[in-house]
Amino acid sequence: MGMATRDLRILLATSLLLLLLGLCGGSTIGICYGRNADDLPTPDKVAQLVKLHNIKYLRIYDANIQVLKAFANTGVELMVGIPNLDLLPFSQFQTNADTWLKNNILPYYPATKITYITVGAEVTESPGNVSAMVVPAMQNILTALKKAGLSKKIKVSSTHSLGVLSRSFPPSAGAFNSKHASFLRPLLEFLAENESPFMVNIYPYYAYQDSPSNVTLDYALFESSSEVIDPNTGLLYTNMFDAQIDAIYFALSGVNFRTIKVMVTETGWPTKGSPKETAATPDNAQTYNTNLIRHVINDTGTPAKPGEGLDVYIFSLFNENRKPGMESERNWGLFYPDQTSVYNLDLTGKGALDVGDDANGTSLNGTTWCIAKSTASETDLTNAINWACGPGNVDCSAVQPSQPCYEPDNLVSHASFIFNSYYQQNGATDVACSFGGAGVKVNKNPSYDNCLYLTSGSKKAAATNVTTPSSFNSTASSAPNMSMAWIFSIQLLSFFSLFI
C-alpha cells in the first residue's frame, strides 16, 4: 500500500470518527433534584434510585456534601448551584470562592462528575439588588477553577426565569427587559467569552395557567394539531416550549450574542394543585414530560434552530412538601418521597414497546416481562436487587432458600424474578425495566416449575405449577432500542475499520 493511499485512508477514518463523536453528542435530558422537604430519602438512596432509572444528568441547588459523596463513582453528571444568599461573599472576595471550591468541590472531583456550576438562580426575580453580584461572583468562581486547572472541564453560568424578557411573543420579537441591561450585558459577555450556555427555566404550564384564553392546553402540552404562525418570520409553531426557546434565541441575537447556546435548566408540569389549578393533573404531567422528552432527544430543534441540540432538565425528582406558595409548588415530582413513581414516565423517549423479533415486540396477548441481562455485571445486579428489595418495595421472599424461585441459585435468576416483580408493579413501562441497563423486556413467559412470574394486573407471584402456554414460545425480544444515530454510528465504525 502506498504511503499517500494509507494517509488518505487514515484521514478518512479520522474524519468518520469525528462524525461519529458528533452524532453521539446530541441533546440530553436531566432531572432537577430539589431537597426542600422533610421526608426525602437519604442521598445515598437517591443515588441508587437515579442509577436504577438510568438518569445521567442531575441538577442540585447547593454543594451539599452528603449529596456529592453519594454520587461518587456513579457516572452521573452534576450541575451544582450556588444559592442567592451566598452571592455577596462570593462577589466580594476571591478568597471566598477559592475556599468554597477547595472545601466543597475539589475533595469529591472527579469521582463525582461535576460539569456545571450555576451562580445564583433567577436573580431578576429576587428581592434586593442581588443581580449586581452575579457576574463578579461568576468571575471569582472561574478564577478559582482556573487555579485548580478545571476551567475547561467545569462551566460557569447562572439560571434565569423567562421574566428576563420584556417580550416573548411572537418569538421573533423576543427581547431582554431593558431594566436588566446593566446586569445582562456583562453576563452575556462572560458566557460568550467562556463558551457557557444561557440557562433558562421554561414553564408552559404557567403560560397556560395565567392566560388560558390565549394559550390552549394542547399547545402547552405538545399536543396541538394546529400551528401558530410568527408573522415576522413565517415560522410555524406547534408548541409553546419551542416558541419560548426561540424567543430567547431572538433576544440573544437582538443584542448581538448569536453564538451563545440556550440550556433549559428547569421545565415540567405539576400533578396536583389548588381548585383553580385544574390543569395540574398526573395525566397532563405525563403527557407534557413524555412529549418533551421525545421532542428533545430526537434532536428536532426549534423552528428557528432546526436540528439544534438542546439540553433540558425536568423539574423535579421528588415532590417537595416544604416549598411555599400554591399547592402545585409542592407537586412537581416524578417520585414520591417513598421512591414510588407519581406516574409512569419513559425517560428514554422511545415509547412503551421495545421492538422484538415479532411484529409488535410482545407475546400474542400483549404481555411482556422484565428479566436480568445475562451480560450484566455482578455488581450491577447486586445493587439493583438491593434497591428493589428495599426502597423499591418488592417482595423478594420467593427467592429465599426453600422458596419456589430459589432454584436455580444464581444471581441472574434471582435478579430476573425481582426485576419482573418491580416492572409489573410499576406499570410495565420501559423505565421500570431499566435497572441501570441491567434489565431487558422479553415476550416469553420466564415462569418455570413452581415459580410463577408476575404479570400485569396480578397482585403477587403465585407458587403453583406453571405450564407455559404454547403462545409464549416465541423468542425473547431484543435488547433495548438503539437510536438511529447510534445504529448509524456502529455502521460508521464498521465502515472506517476497513481503511485501517
What distinguishing features does this structure have?
about 500 residues, alpha/beta, TIM Barrel, 2 domains, two-stranded antiparallel ribbon, disordered N terminus, disordered C terminus
Strand content: 5-15%
Described by the principal axes of the CA atoms, the overall outline is globular
State the order of secondary-structure elements, H for helix, E for strand.
Answer: HEHEHEHHEHEEEHEHHEEHEHEEHHEH
CATH superfamily membership of the largest domain: Glycosidases
Biggest sheet architecture: 8 strands, parallel, barrel
Structural class: alpha/beta
- CATH architecture term of the largest domain: Alpha-Beta Barrel
Please give the alpha-carbon distance between the first and last residues: 11 Å
| Biggest sheet: strand arrangement | 1-2-3-4-5-8-11-12
CATH topology of the largest domain: TIM Barrel
Outline the low-pLDDT stretches: 1-25, 351-364, 459-500
Number of separate strands? 14
Q: Care to describe what's here?
A:
It comes from Kalanchoe fedtschenkoi. It catalyses: Hydrolysis of (1->3)-beta-D-glucosidic linkages in (1->3)-beta-D-glucans. InterPro entries: GH, Glyco_hydro_17, Glyco_hydro_17_plant, X8. Belongs to the glycosyl hydrolase 17 family. Its main location: membrane. The chain is an alpha/beta fold. It folds into 2 domains: 26-335, TIM Barrel, CATH 3.20.20.80; 369-442, no CATH class. Helices cover 34% and strands 13% of the residues. It contains 14 helices and 14 strands. The strands form 4 sheets. An 8-stranded parallel barrel has the order 1-2-3-4-5-8-11-12, surrounded by 4 helices. Helix 1 (3-23) packs antiparallel against helix 14 and helix 6 (131-147) packs parallel to helix 7. It is globular, with a radius of gyration of 25 Å. The relative contact order is 0.11. Residues 1-25, 351-364 and 459-500 have low confidence and may be disordered.
